[in-house]
Automatic annotation (TrEMBL):
<keyword id="KW-0472">Membrane</keyword>
<keyword id="KW-0479">Metal-binding</keyword>
<dbReference type="GO" id="GO:0005506">
    <property type="term" value="F:iron ion binding"/>
</dbReference>
<keyword id="KW-0444">Lipid biosynthesis</keyword>
<protein>
    <recommendedName>
        <fullName>Fatty acid hydroxylase domain-containing protein</fullName>
    </recommendedName>
</protein>
<feature type="domain" description="Fatty acid hydroxylase">
    <location>
        <begin position="88"/>
        <end position="226"/>
    </location>
</feature>
<dbReference type="GO" id="GO:0006633">
    <property type="term" value="P:fatty acid biosynthetic process"/>
</dbReference>
<dbReference type="InterPro" id="IPR014430">
    <property type="entry name" value="Scs7"/>
</dbReference>
<keyword id="KW-0276">Fatty acid metabolism</keyword>
<keyword id="KW-0560">Oxidoreductase</keyword>
<dbReference type="Pfam" id="PF04116">
    <property type="entry name" value="FA_hydroxylase"/>
</dbReference>
<keyword id="KW-0275">Fatty acid biosynthesis</keyword>
<dbReference type="GO" id="GO:0080132">
    <property type="term" value="F:fatty acid 2-hydroxylase activity"/>
</dbReference>
<feature type="transmembrane region" description="Helical">
    <location>
        <begin position="78"/>
        <end position="97"/>
    </location>
</feature>
<keyword id="KW-0443">Lipid metabolism</keyword>
<feature type="transmembrane region" description="Helical">
    <location>
        <begin position="53"/>
        <end position="71"/>
    </location>
</feature>
<dbReference type="GO" id="GO:0005789">
    <property type="term" value="C:endoplasmic reticulum membrane"/>
</dbReference>
Length: 237
């Protein structure tokens, strides 16, 4: 299903075109187009609408869910300091999940028609159009589906009283990640920490796309050796 020499028409819906790029897909998707106006994905208006999400929908929907699960652990007998500790642990564990997904799933190499198509929907579109503000956060419908196995996994690893608060912490970590990710693309930070994070993430998009997988922190890049080299180190090679 690969058309040799296929050229993507940016004026037409993209999702069912990109698969035809075959082995050329990886190079194409990592050549960013910097525009706040994103491309059209689908010809169908309903499908198209489901791919677009404003950033504030994420905390609006999921923070009440975080509170519900944290309160569940309290109702089951945990005291407030224990619930708070589990929330912090869940947020910390999320940073590892964030790194792992970004490095090993979002940056997986694909060449087949359906592999390219799935990758473009999952993450490729973000690298091709990094400033598309309506496709920076994960659509809530897709998140809700993924939370079911995530919740069951947390229950396997913890006790009935601790599982809800740990799950809430992981979900809170996700909310922080998605909001941070949006801010790094569209915010104008003035403080040193967010300025560093923005520079770090823009470096991942526009300079070295196979390094710097952390969004909310560079911790796991340091641990696993995927810190991007400095410009001076690159020049000296």
């Amino acid at each position: 299903m690969v058309a040799q020499g296929f050229v993507v028409d940016l004026n037409k819906p993209l999702v069912f075109q990109v698969g035809h790029l075959g082995e050329a897909y990886d190079e194409w998707v990592h050549q960013p187009i910097v525009s706040r106006e994103g491309p059209r994905f689908f010809a169908n208006d309903v499908m198209e609408a489901l791919t677009r999400t404003v950033w504030w929908v994420i905390p609006t929907i999921w923070i009440p869910v975080v509170c519900y699960f944290a309160a569940m652990s309290a109702r089951l007998g945990l005291v407030i300091p224990e619930v708070v500790s589990l929330l912090f642990l869940g947020v910390f564990l999320w940073t590892l999940v964030e790194y792992t997904l970004h490095r090993f799933l979002f940056h997986i190499k694909t060449t087949s028609y359906w592999g390219n198509t799935a990758h473009y929907l999952l993450h490729g579109c973000h690298h091709k159009h990094p400033m598309d503000g309506l496709r920076l956060v994960f659509p809530p419908a897709a998140t809700a589906i993924l939370l079911v196995p995530f919740w069951n996994f947390v229950k396997l690893l913890s006790t009935p009283t601790t599982a809800p608060a740990l799950f809430a912490g992981g979900l809170l970590g996700y909310v922080m990640y998605d909001c941070t990710h949006y801010y790094l693309h569209h915010g104008q930070p003035s403080n040193e920490v967010p300025k560093h994070l923005k520079k770090y993430h823009m470096n991942h998009h526009f300079r070295i796309q196979d390094k710097g997988y952390g969004i909310t922190s560079s911790l796991w890049d340091r641990v696993f050796g995927t810190l991007p080299p400095s410009k001076e180190a690159q020049k000296s090679r």
